[in-house]
UniProtKB/TrEMBL annotation:
Gene3D superfamilies, A to Z: Umud Fragment, subunit A
Molecular function GO terms recorded: signal peptidase activity
Domain of life, per lineage: Bacteria
Organism phylogeny: Bacteria, Bacillati, Actinomycetota, Coriobacteriia, Eggerthellales
Name this protein carries in UniProt: Signal peptidase I
Membrane topology: Single-pass type II membrane protein
């Protein structure tokens, strides 16, 4: 056997390896552009409204599956359509759900008469704020069924339900579950 004969006998193996690589890359693209958006959505965090938990510039994944099975619960960090700006998605923490009563007393959030233990706010007070035009928020406020009361963890720098009122459950786009960038901050988000 000559050296040229040996090279020709490896050609089918090299072609198969190249086809496998091409097939893998096509599958990767299909999953990332086709299947992945049905389950996960990536978001870049542009503001400091969730600081303490999520920082400006963090990249997070919001999963879409769990809210097909149940509604958001108090403590969940959710992504949802901004009620004050069409097409914009916000990220906040659910503080109360339909039927619960929210009050702000001496800088603390009180739900159904009990002050919340909120270590994620790092001691920042929760005071009422001026509302968006046409929105009326008065305390105590009972959250309507099918609605949520949401607040940013950075209570002194967050336009949230104190500003735009309650948000419909059907405006929720997912549950924020994982920070994937920057590398030192990779990890699960606490709910």
């Amino acid at each position: 056997m000559y050296a040229g004969d040996h090279a020709r006998s490896n050609e089918p193996a090299v072609k198969r390896a190249l086809w496998r690589l091409v097939a893998f890359l096509l599958l990767f693209v299909l999953v990332n552009w086709g299947v992945m958006p049905l389950a996960l959505q990536a978001y870049a965090i542009p503001s400091g409204s969730m600081e303490g938990t999520i920082l400006v510039g963090d990249r997070v994944y919001s999963e879409r599956i769990s809210y097909y099975l149940h509604d958001p619960e108090a403590g969940d960090i959710i992504t949802f359509q901004d009620p004050a700006c069409e097409g914009r998605v916000l990220i906040k923490r659910v503080v109360a759900t339909g039927g619960q009563t929210v009050d702000l007393v001496d800088g603390r959030v009180v739900v159904d008469g009990a002050p919340l233990d909120e270590p994620y706010v790092n001691g920042k007070p929760s005071f009422p704020m001026d509302t968006a035009w046409g929105v009326d928020v008065s305390y105590p406020l009972t959250v309507p069924e099918g609605e949520l009361w949401v607040m940013g963890d950075n209570r002194t720098n967050s336009q949230d339900s104190r500003y735009f009122g309650t948000v419909p459950v059907d405006s929720v786009t997912g549950k924020a579950v994982f920070t994937y960038w920057p590398v030192p901050r990779i990890g699960l988000l606490d709910s």
